[in-house]
Amino acid sequence: MISFLQKILLTLFILLPASPALRAAGQRGVGQDALLARRVPPARYQKTENDLLVVFLDVGQGNAVLIVSPEGKTLLYDAGGTPEWMGSSWDPGARVIVPYLDELEINELDYMLMSHSHSDHIGGMPAILNNFKVKTFLDPGFDPDSGLYADLLNLVRARGSDYMVIREGDGHKIDLGKSVKVEIFSPPADFYFRGTNSDSNNNSVLMKVICGDVSFLLTGDLEERGELYAARKYRSQLASNILQVGHHGSATSSSKPFLEQVLPEVALIPVGDRNTFGHPRAEALNRIESVGAEIYRTDYDGHVLVYTDGKTFVVETER
């Protein structure tokens, strides 16, 4: 029989609101349960040469993600930069990414992928192309008449890189070795988003990187229109342990329907210190926290490194 005290405790458990993490756990459906309890503290994680390494680089108000597979295959997703209208000469490609690749003794890149053509995502790419062999360059094929993008494509051709368009269903175009799988959810295979708040942002390459039971979702500057397309079509297939937060944590990204399908344990915001855009916005932070994700920010944490053996993962920060 249940005692009077047990009845009181049971009633309190039912009536009291759950924590965000518990609420998020309760929202996970079939196929998402595997994302729970995968993270371990640094002291308990034993790094090996068979790990997948994903580095969210601190490139200021921009985005750059380096992937190094257990087989030694490499992919750079975006390369930072500064908005063209700011007129800044600071080059995160030359100042941050080239030295970092040198430090890791990476001599060439198998892939460099442009999520979309905004300068804070591709401004650092010329320095990469001029200092390293890039075997294959990929982009979504959406050209918003950007002079910087046109110049970049000319350099890609001049440097002898293969060029491929990558859209929904094109994950097979990226080979990071037998232990890593890539899925591409957007931009759509048969149309581009047009007439949105930002067509370039909404046509960002939405890419999932899977290593065993651990997965990463990279979004570029994807905004609500693109997020809702993916959330409605792919639902729990978007579920990922680690999320690169779209558009630096702007109010127009990280929509609730999207986050409720991804349900990340860790959310990484690539953002510049004291940026003029007010990123990340409070409303976006609140939505991310509501699904139980722990937030990291490159302006606070510097480079954020994630190692995984496919069963567990660990997060380390530069600062």
Q: What is this entry, summarized?
A:
This protein is of the alpha/beta class.
| Rg of Cα set | 20 Å
Count of DSSP H/I helices: 11
**CATH C-level category:** Alpha Beta
Secondary-structure element pattern, one letter each: HHEEEHEHHEHEEHEEHEHEHEHEE
Largest sheet: 8 strands, mixed
Query: What is the CATH superfamily classification?
Result: Ribonuclease Z/Hydroxyacylglutathione hydrolase-like
Strand order of the largest sheet: 6-5-4-3-2-1-13-14
Unreliable segments (pLDDT under 50, ≥5 consecutive)?
Answer: 8-23
Estimate percent helicity: 25-40%
Q: What integer is the average pLDDT?
A: 89
Classify the secondary structure makeup into a structural class.
alpha/beta
CATH topology: Metallo-beta-lactamase, Chain A
Strand composition percent: 15-25%
Number of separate structural domains:
1
Distance between the termini: 54 Å
Going by CATH, the architecture would be 4-Layer Sandwich
What is the strand tally? 14
Inertia-based shape: globular
